[in-house]
């Protein structure tokens, strides 16, 4: 046997003329114990890693969902103080703070006109004619109309639709009881309706009309104006819209 030969004797081996210790083989019981310990360490490391990646809890308590209420859409006719068919209804008045005076409601610019300067609607039945002073607001103010007022002082308001319409009126945000007369293309009273303040009942004639005239409640009956009466305005209906 040469000096470069190697052999195992007990717990040592000889290689390259040097003594190199060799660990004795581990027993099966010790291997099992080491495997179990290693597995325990690995499991602990995995648990710690998962915990570090878990997202932090939010401030919203569990079981309390946050709901967003949908904005309701109302498909209803526009107020008597708005032009039927207008694309944008008037915005509601802001709510006043508790204890503060009510916020002022908008009113039509024609409300400031003195009675003597108003235009007129004249109704004729047979030999009898009666005249109602009327405000003639521009079409852009139809969404205000007679809203925001508490009295009319013997005046009415003209809504002009020279192309003809057949839509209803209601009294949302209108605080005065009114009568309304619908006038057709032959300048004849097509229908007369009474409308109660701050109600949502729909008032619509049976046919197409080119003008609607609001008056104080009971004015038409008190003056003998009925369906079939002829109507004349001292204002051009197309010019009345202010277009």
Task: Please describe what this structure looks like.
The chain is α+β, with helices and mostly antiparallel strands and 243 residues long. Among the domains are: 8-48; 113-240, Jelly Rolls (Sandwich), CATH 2.60.120.1140. The chain is built from three helices and ten strands; from the N terminus they run βββαββββββαβα. The strands form two sheets. Strands 8-7-9-6-5-4-10 form a seven-stranded mixed beta sheet. Strands 1-2-3 form a three-stranded antiparallel beta sheet, with no helix packed on it. Strand 2 (12-15) and strand 3 form a beta hairpin. It is globular, with a radius of gyration of 46 Å. Residues 1-23, 27-34, 55-76 and 82-96 have low confidence and may be disordered.
């Amino acid at each position: 046997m040469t000096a470069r030969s190697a052999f195992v004797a007990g717990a040592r081996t000889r290689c390259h003329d040097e003594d190199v210790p060799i660990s004795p083989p581990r027993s099966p019981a010790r291997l099992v114990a080491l495997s179990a310990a290693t597995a325990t360490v690995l499991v602990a490391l995995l648990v710690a890693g998962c915990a570090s990646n878990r997202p932090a809890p939010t401030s919203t308590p569990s079981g309390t969902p946050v709901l967003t209420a949908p904005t309701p859409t109302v498909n209803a006719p526009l107020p008597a103080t708005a032009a039927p068919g207008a694309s944008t209804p008037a915005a509601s008045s802001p709510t006043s703070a508790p204890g503060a005076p009510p916020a002022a409601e908008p009113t039509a610019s024609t409300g400031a006109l003195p009675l003597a300067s108003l235009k007129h609607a004249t109704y004729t039945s047979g030999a009898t004619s009666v005249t109602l002073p009327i405000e003639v607001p521009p079409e852009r103010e139809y969404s205000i109309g007679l809203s925001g007022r508490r009295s009319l002082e013997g005046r009415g308001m003209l809504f002009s639709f020279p192309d003809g319409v057949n839509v209803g009126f209601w009294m949302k945000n209108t605080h005065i009881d009114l009568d309304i007369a619908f006038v057709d293309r032959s300048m004849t009273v097509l229908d007369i309706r009474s409308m109660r303040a701050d109600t949502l009942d729909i008032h619509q004639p049976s046919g197409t009309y080119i003008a609607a005239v609001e008056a104080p409640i009971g004015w038409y009956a008190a003056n003998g104006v009925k369906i079939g009466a002829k109507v004349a305005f001292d204002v051009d209906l197309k010019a009345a819209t202010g277009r």
